[in-house]
Every structure is written in C-alpha cells, then in structure tokens.
Amino acid sequence: MERLECEVLVVGGGLGGHVAALSAAEEGADVLLMEKQAEVGGSSVLAGGSFAFAGTDMQKERGIVDSEALLTQDLLEVGQGKNDPQLVAQYARSQLDAYYWLRERGVEFMSVQAASGQSVPRSHLANPRMVVDLLHRTAESLPNVHIVTGCAAERLVQGSESKRVSGVRARQGATEYLLEAARGVVLTSGGFGQNKEMIAAFAPGKEKALLLGALGNVGDGLKMAWKLGAGLRDMPYVKGTFGNFPETKVGQHLGLEAVYKGAIAVNKSARRFVNESLDYKLLGDACLLQEDAISFQILDQKVMDASIPGYTIFDFGRRLEQGLMVTAPTLAELADKIGVPAAQLEDTVRTYNEMVRSGSEDPFGRKHLTHRFGDLVEIDRPPFYAYPSVTGIVATYAGITVSPQAEVTDVFGEPIPHLYAAGEIMGGFHGAAYMTGTSLGKATVFGRIAGKAATRKAS
Ligand SMILES: Cc1cc2nc3c(=O)[nH]c(=O)nc-3n(C[C@H](O)[C@H](O)[C@H](O)COP(=O)(O)OP(=O)(O)OC[C@H]3O[C@@H](n4cnc5c(N)ncnc54)[C@H](O)[C@@H]3O)c2cc1C
Q1: DSSP states along 258-284
Q2: Among 440, 444, 446, 448, residue to substitute to test ligand 1 (most atoms within 8 Å of Cβ)
Q3: Ligand 1 geometric centre to CA of 447 (Å)
Q4: Ligand 1 center from residue 130 Cα (angstroms)
Q5: How far is CA 239 from CA 211, 242, 433, in A?
Q6: pTM for this structure?
Q7: Which of 320, 399, 426, 436 would you call most buried, defined as having the most Cβ atoms within 10 angstroms of its Cβ?
Q8: Superfamily of chain region 2-195+215-237+397-456
Q9: CA 213, CA 42: separation in Å to the nearest integer?
Q10: Among the atoms of ligand 1, which is closest to the Cα of residue 439?
Q11: Any residues with Cβ below 6 Å from ligand 1, and which?
Q12: Which CATH code fits 241-393?
C-alpha cells in the first residue's frame, strides 16, 4: 500500500472541496484534495448557478433591502423549524464574508433574482463551472495544494483509543493508498443523488423522479462517516426539484421555474394542484403525486417577456428556441398540443385570473410569486406557453450532523476528532424544505469554515 502525507485532506473535488482546500491552504496548511472521478466538479458544475447571499453590494445597487436577520427568518420559515438553528445562524453570519471571498478570487455574479423560498431577491447568479475552474486553477498554482483525480476514498482511518481521524484508505485504479492527514480530514464528497438504493431507503415514493446529480455522488462520504458513528439529519426531507423537462439527462440544464415569475402549474387534467409559490422541493413532491408524475407550467407572453437570458431557471426564451416550450395563440390550442382537456384549461386559467383580479383567497393558498415576494399576475396575454415539467433529484439536502464549526458529530452530538464536513454531505441546514441558492452557498460558507477549522487543529 502506497503512503502519502499531508496536513489537511479534502475528500471530493466539487465547490465545497475546492473552497475547503483553498481556505486551508490560505491558512498555511499542506493540502491534498482528492477526487474520485477523472474530472473535478461534481454536482457543483452541473448547477444552475444561484448562490443565496444577503446584504451584498449587488443587492444594495438594485435597491434590495436584505439582511442577516431577514435571511435567518426566511431560512427557518422555509425549513419549517426543522433546521438546526445554529447552522442557520452560522450561515447567516458567515455568508457575506463568503460572498466577498469569492469575489476577491475573481468570481463574477451577473444578476440577482428572487427564487424559491426568498422574500426578497437574493439568488446571485454565477456560472458554476467557471467558479470551480477558477478556484481549481488557483489551487493548482499554490505550492501547498496537491490535487489527485481518479482516486476514491474508501474508509476513514481512526485511532482506536483517541478516535482521532488521521486519514483515509483510498484506491486509484489497482493501487491502494493510505493518505495520512496530520491535522484533519474534510469530507466534501457530496450527497447520494445517484444511489438508487439509498434514495429508496430514505426517500420512498421518489422512484419516478429523475436522478440528476453528479455520477460520483453515491453517498461514499456518508457511509464512511456513519461507520464512525456520525449522526444523521434531515433524511425525511430528501426531495426532488420541480420544473425539470421530462427525460432530462445528467448534465443537461433544462430546469425551469416560470411559476416564480407568474405561471401556474396544471396536471394532465388541466387542473391546478398546488400553491405554486412554495419552494420547488415541495412543488416536486406535489408533482410526483399527479397522473404520470407530470405537470405543465402555463404562462402567457407577459411571463415570457420576463425571461432572463442566461439565467437557467428563468431563461424561458432559450427553452422556446430549443423547441421544448410549447406555444399556441389560444389556451384551447395550447391544451390540444400538450394533450390536456381544452375546456378545463380555459376554466382553470379563467378561475385563476378572477382570483388574481378580485384579490379573493386562492384555494391552494397562493398569495405571491415566490414565498412572500411579488404580486400575482393574470395569465391573459397571448400567445400562451406550456413547459412540461417533472421532478428531478438534483441534490439530497440531507446527511451527517455537523457543528457550526463544521466538525462532524456522532449520534450523541459529540465531535468525531479531526473530522469535518461541508457542502451537500451535511444534514441539518435546510430542514423540511429549500431556499434556492443555499446548496452552492452552503458549500462555500461551510467549505471555508471546514478548511480553516481543520487547519487550526493541532496534531
Ligand atoms: C442540475 C443541478 C442544478 C443545481 N442548481 C443549483 C443552484 O442553482 N443553486 C444551488 O445552490 N444548488 C444547486 N444545485 C445543488 C448544488 O449544485 C450541490 O448541492 C452543490 O454543488 C454540492 O457541492 P459539493 O461540493 O458539496 O458536492 P459536489 O459538487 O457534488 O462534489 C462532490 C465531489 O465528491 C466526489 N466524490 C464522491 N465520493 C468520493 C470519494 N469516495 N472519494 C473522492 N471523491 C469523491 C464526487 O465525484 C464529486 O466530484 C444543483 C444541482 C444540480 C445537479
């Protein structure tokens, strides 16, 4: 067995791994970043690119009033109080610093929009592949960061008396490695969105959801941490995301959230079935319960005009160009094209418009475009559009317990010495539902905390 030594070992080369590795290196540690796949990037490079930050210069320039307090309130409200308030507080406290840390390293954010679970616009859009590439090149240029790809961690190594995690056993092709970390091991190996058995065990009823996370994300890190007694959090809330085009393949960017700009969602009977302002995990659940687990986002020209070129989930025009968005001059013709009853679609839209016009109560409880943001709009300006939408699991949002300092804790809440985690592998942060941008945000915020904390631990 080959041996390699470092001070901080980072397992998984997505955004969380790169941020943790750079943060540890900036503190002066010798860092080894290992990635199981041939290429780094994980789900991070597949993402839409929304990062949830509050109180930024970009928001201020646009007159958006946001704060740590409002972000905290939204996170706890969206998480239905099931999230760990200490992790939420840590995110809220640290996110602005994380935003400027990214900016200082050259990351460019292009736009700020309101999306799932946000009471003010706080989804800061960046190209996630460019973000990871940038951090990767920076890491490669540092003398104290070593990156290996095609090398999978298989087991954590723990002292039998001290319980201190001192490294991992790993495999690269036929070669077995003992990778030793004098200060700490950071798990940033992502979720289990590509592990069908784990999805079936933790998220029964999601069999019809597309699996859209990175192929390497099969729960390796979770299993390695469980073997050492790590706790579990948020497992009942593993959910899929609403708005994916049917038969989307891993790596395709076809998720669309026209509902947050004013569209409604109807099922194959052309009836609404949910409050469309809810976060897209809850919409994903509702969609899975419809006939054939499919629905259609119905929009008019006004919503189409709100399309934001380059902003994946709001780029309605791009979907039209791709031929994925169905269009027709009347609702009846649109209904015929998507195979739903025309009279019912007309009736559904008429009833919805009357509700918006009169301000009367919506039977599904919709009051805003998204969460508590934006006024409802009537669907009345032709032509009309329909986007076929199914549920896809893009991230698992649940996992091992960590302290606010990103220390992995065991089932009794005690830290497992020298073991840290950040990003999608963490449980406890989101709670019962989800705010757009908090996965990339969490990988950045807790990646920084984990990298620095692992470095500080004396050997
Ligand atoms: C289509 C899509 C759209 C999304 N859009 C958004 C969005 O707009 N905003 C947002 O906040 N979130 C979004 N997400 C979720 C977000 O991308 C992820 O939750 C986040 O990027 C996870 O970062 P990470 O660093 O924790 O994990 P990843 O980026 O997934 O990296 C984990 C890495 O660990 C590697 N690995 C796994 N096991 C091992 C092992 N045993 N040894 C070594 N390496 C290992 C994997 O191969 C992978 O490269 C989206 C996800 C998808 C798929």
Answers
A1: GGGGT-EEE-TTS-B-S-TTS-HHHHH
A2: 440
A3: 12
A4: 15
A5: 11, 10, 8
A6: 0.94
A7: 399
A8: FAD/NAD(P)-binding domain (3.50.50.60)
A9: 8
A10: 11
A11: 11-17, 34-37, 41-44, 46-50, 152-153, 188-190, 212-214, 216-217, 220-221, 394-395, 423-424, 437-441, 443
A12: 3.90.700.10
Ligand 1 center to 348 CA (angstroms): 38
CA distance 38 to 33: 13
Q: Do domains 2-195+215-237+397-456 and 241-393 have the same CATH topology?
A: no
Per-residue pLDDT of the chain (459 residues; tens, 9 = 90+): 899 999 999 999 999 999 999 999 999 999 999 999 999 999 999 999 999 999 999 999 999 999 999 999 999 999 999 999 999 999 999 999 999 999 999 999 999 999 989 999 999 999 999 999 999 999 999 999 999 999 999 999 999 999 999 999 999 999 999 999 999 999 999 999 999 999 999 999 898 999 999 999 999 999 999 999 999 999 999 999 999 999 999 999 899 999 999 999 999 999 999 999 999 999 999 999 999 999 999 999 999 999 999 888 999 999 999 999 999 999 999 999 999 999 999 999 999 999 999 999 999 999 999 988 999 999 999 999 999 999 999 999 999 999 999 999 999 999 999 999 999 999 999 999 999 999 999 999 999 999 999 998 655
The whole-angstrom separation of Cα 260 and Cα 401 is 32
Nearest CA to ligand 1 atom 17: 44
Candidate of 33, 43, 107, 151 to mutate for ligand 1, largest count of ligand atoms within 8 Å of Cβ: 43
Q: Is 234 left (phi over 0), alpha (psi -120 to 50) or beta?
A: left
What CA–CA distance (Å, rounded) separates 195 from 247? 18
Cα–ligand 1 centroid distance for 396 (angstroms): 10
Query: What DSSP character marks residue 168?
Result: E
Q: Which atom of ligand 1 is nearest to the CA of 19?
A: 25
